[in-house]
Amino acid sequence: MKNTAIISRLLPVLTFLLFAASLFMVFIYVPTEETMGIVQRIFYFHVPVAWIAFLAFFIVFIGSIMYLWKRQIIWDTIASSSAEIGLVFATLVLITGSIWAKPIWGVWWVWEPRLTTSLVLWFIYAAYLLVRSYASEESRGARFSAVVGIIGFIDVPIVALAITMWRTQHPGPVIFGGGLATSMLITLLVCLVAFTTLYALLLIQRVSLKKRENEIKILQNDDLILEKDTGG
Amino acid sequence: MKFWNKVFAIVWKDAISEMRTREIIFSVLIFTILVVVTFNFAFGASAETMKLVAPGILWVTFTFAGILALNRSFIPEIEEGCLGGLMICPVSREVIYVGKMLGSLFFMLIIEIIALPVFALLFNLSVLSPQLITITFLATVGFVAVGTLFSALAVNTKAREMVLPILFLPVVVPIIISAVKASGQALSGEPWGELSSWLAVLGAFDAIFIVISFWIFPFIIEE
Q1: 3-state class (DSSP) for residue B83
Q2: CA-CA distance, B73 to B100, in Å (whole number)?
Q3: Could you please report the per-residue DSSP string of B20-65?
Q4: How far apart are CA B154 and CA B83, in angstroms?
Q5: Spatial CB neighbours of A139, under 8 Å, sequence gap ≥ 6
Q6: Helix (H) / strand (E) containing A27
Q7: What is the pTM of this model?
Q8: B174 and A162 in contact by Cβ < 8 A?
Q9: How many contacts does A have with B, using Cβ atoms within 8 A?
Q10: I need a labelling partner for A162 at 20 to 30 A (CA). Which of A31, A64, A206, B206 fits?
Q11: B157 has which bridge partners?
Q12: How confident is residue A63, by pLDDT bands cut at 50, 70 and 90?
């Protein structure tokens, strides 16, 4: 209990410092890219955001499996919190991608594999959250959305494969291809770490909020039962 | 009773109830042909355009038809309280999944067997090639594999038939892409070799989602 208290104190500070550092690196430290110019700097935002979206959906997948297996509410809480964060980041991926694509490709949107896969991903996890809200009871919603969380994540590689076979235009992966200057790589790594801590912070906050919501619901139910018992 | 005997009993139950009510095949078939005719108004009917858009029309139509038929697969079970009966039966939940899936597959294939020649006739295309039949079969298996799972899920929510398309459409994107591309190639008379990579995607999707749905279905109809 003491450890979690320390983490929840430290994490916001750490996230703040990391974001200050990454802002400095993105706007002052790193040189402007030659061909694309200033627009390229959105890359340091776009790539970590995409990484967080995938990480979040992977956590949804793990949480869903664990919930169906162990039936502990905490797994559902983790999965659904992660899905909410993931959907926000998936939306940001689509928006930052479009902002970059307009000056570089000349259009806001092209039906290119990674863009299209991100869009399909967005729809799958929007459905995940919709199914939860449409369920008549909460335990049902938890089970149903766990099913969607598992099917959706397994579907992603097949979607990506089919769409890649269908067409290609995204700039290839530059991180491991050696096409990225050292300063740019360092900046990207700092941004990745900063966003990952942000994700951890958001997830911890959301999970503890949901835990309290559940506690309140349990208290309310107890009250109702008491009222019925006393004939009130 | 062995596994397949139990499965066959559920398929037979669905077939009998379909023969008596004619809720799925007849209405979905009319819907399918109506959609094809409506697309014809949307795109004009020059032979050139038709050749380009025909695979798309075909698969959008079959996808919508699939959603309608799959929704009907569980709605009567819920409305008449039959699902409770099915669950009291001394069969495992997996048997119910396979039975309902084969039932839906059977209905969908009948609809497609009638709709494909009509489509060919209305659009002057030769769709009755072994390639196109294989594509249709594989894609339909994929549709019913995930569709049966999501249909059972959807009827247990408040929004019912709205939930199925919202879940179903993004997940079957690989099937739609592969089926449209492969049908396009099949319609322009290309040999099996050209289609093989698309058929592989369809086959992989079918195999993966039959296994996953089989395993995950019992979690949906628990209580």
Answers
A1: helix
A2: 7
A3: HH--SHHHHHHHHHHHHHHHHHHH---HHHHHHHHHHHHHHHHHHH
A4: 14
A5: none
A6: none
A7: 0.88
A8: yes
A9: 88
A10: A64
A11: A135
A12: very high
Tokens of A101: 């694509």
Specify whether the backbone of A72 is left (phi greater than 0), alpha (psi in -120 to 50) or beta. beta
Q: Report whether B59 contacts B180 (CB < 8 A).
A: yes
pLDDT tens for each residue of B136-148: 999 999 999 999 9
Q: For B135, how many CA atoms within 13 A lie in the half-sphere containing its CB?
A: 30
Domain that holds residue A15: 2-229
Question: Residue A155 is part of a domain; what is its CATH number?
Answer: 1.20.120
Contacting residues for A194 by C-beta, under 8 A, at least 6 apart: A15, A18, A19, A21, A22, A48
Q: How do the domains of chain B map onto residue ranges?
A: 3-219
* H or E element at residue A143: helix A138-166
B185 neighbourhood in chain A, CB within 8 Å: none
- A158 to B174: CB separation less than 8 angstroms, yes or no: yes
Report helix, strand or coil for A31.
coil
Instruction: Give the nearest chain B residue to A125 (CA atoms).
Output: B167
SS3 A112: coil
Q: What is the ipTM of this complex?
A: 0.89
Asked if A70 is an interface residue toward chain B (Cβ–Cβ < 8 A), one would say: no
Both structure tokens of B78: 């819920």
Domain count, chain A: 1
Do B173 and A163 make contact, defined as CB atoms within 8 angstroms?
Answer: yes
